[in-house]
Design a protein that fits this description.
Blueprint (H helix, E strand, L loop, with lengths): L1 E2 L11 E2 L1 E5 L10 E5 L3 H6 L16 E6 L3 E6 L8 E5 L3 E4 L12 H22 L2 H8 L12 H9 L1 E3 L13 E4 L7 E2 L5 E6 L4 E6 L8 E4 L8 H8 L9 H4 L1 H12 L5 H6 L7 H16 L5 H16 L3 H11 L20 H5 L5 H4 L1 H4 L1 H12 L3 E3 L2 E3 L4
Parallel strand pairs: 4-8, 11-14
Antiparallel strand pairs: 1-2, 3-4, 5-6, 6-14, 7-13, 8-10, 9-10, 12-13, 15-16
Helix pairs in contact: 7-9, 9-10, 10-11
Bound molecules: S-adenosylmethionine.
Amino acid sequence: MQIKECDPYGGSTPGAMTFTRLPIDAGPDEPVSECLFFPGSKEVLMKLRGFPQPLLRPTAPTFRVTDIPGKGKGAFSTRVLKMGDLILNERPLLISARGVSASHPEGLTEAQYFQHSLNTLEEYVEIAIKRMRPANKAAFMALTNSHKEDGSGPIVGIMRTNSVACDGLSPDMKGDLASYSAVCKDISRLNHSCSPNTAARFDIASLSYQLYAVRDIAAGEELTYQYTPVNYSAVERQKGLNSYDFVCACTACLDAPASDARRAALAAFKPDVMEWVYDRTRPDDWLLVKCREHLELIEREGLQQIGLHFDIVKAMMEAYICLGDAQAASEWAARLKKFQWDDERTDVEALLNPASPAYKKHMLWRVRFDGGFMQSKLGKEFAALALASGGSVGSWGMVFPMK
Ligand SMILES: C[S@@+](CC[C@H](N)C(=O)[O-])C[C@H]1O[C@@H](n2cnc3c(N)ncnc32)[C@H](O)[C@@H]1O
């Protein structure tokens, strides 16, 4: 099917769309995704060595889906889950472009053209739904639709209610069209919370979403997910949630002034290890104290899945290395290992044992006291360069962003 330009979300691209079922050679028992791709996306996957990697399995069942008064359905843990535990790993039912190019008939108002574009997208995704395995199609069509009265067709309505962003599949497109929408059978049943207890990561190698516990979860607790960025204020979050047709009544929203102040304090904090190392006017435990204060705020707000949480735990580990305390550093390394959902996660295996020789070889080992390479003129110049260009300093040396 040839397309021209424009999409209902504001971007445009020329080219032919591809309908494809992945993995291509899947047997009847292997989960598959029906895909509506722009040119080049299928090839991105086909070029990955060993694609598709197998899905991971939790050690035992983790959740069940059930009705919740006022929320439709929701997912609940069926056993105690620990921070970093895998809850589920699923291939989406549908991975689709968020908009397709539509013809632009003369004389349409902006609203009419928007509607025309929505209709065109509906025609495309209808083809993808018809191609689905019957069980997948039934699961897709059973999902909630909170876009019944805004001009969306029944399939696009389900997509707009249940999609998670799916990045990394477009070889060269930018903006909205670089991001696909994925609709999953189980993740779609998770309700929103501004203090969510789970986070998902898209694993391109297995074409799947992995859902992880971001803090310890009790048996029988509702599993929740963020639909809108949770570091925004309560008013801004609700704006992002309006299209889902509910008013959030989580504890952060019910106590918005106090919660907003805590979230603003978190947004303003950046744990900068090197700045503290070089600043002799600050006490040796300055960074540790600051990090602990902000960790308390994260726990108070239930924001364990935000990137700052990872940054703080990493800074605690590095600060203890700078202070030459391998025992404390190894405890923070163990905590850092639990951030399975965070794409920034690093390999800390060598730092889990406080007696490991990796500590004394670490570039930051005791630099707060001894100086070492990082306190030498050359070391400071390198670090400043790496940090100024958005990079980082680690045990392996300096990392410069490759953009
Ligand atoms: C992705 S679905 C989540 C699963 C859905 N509850 C179901 O029955 O399948 C999104 C819809 O769930 C409902 N929902 C999600 N989070 C909610 C919340 N915190 N409070 C009330 N309703 C919520 C809204 O109707 C929303 O449009």
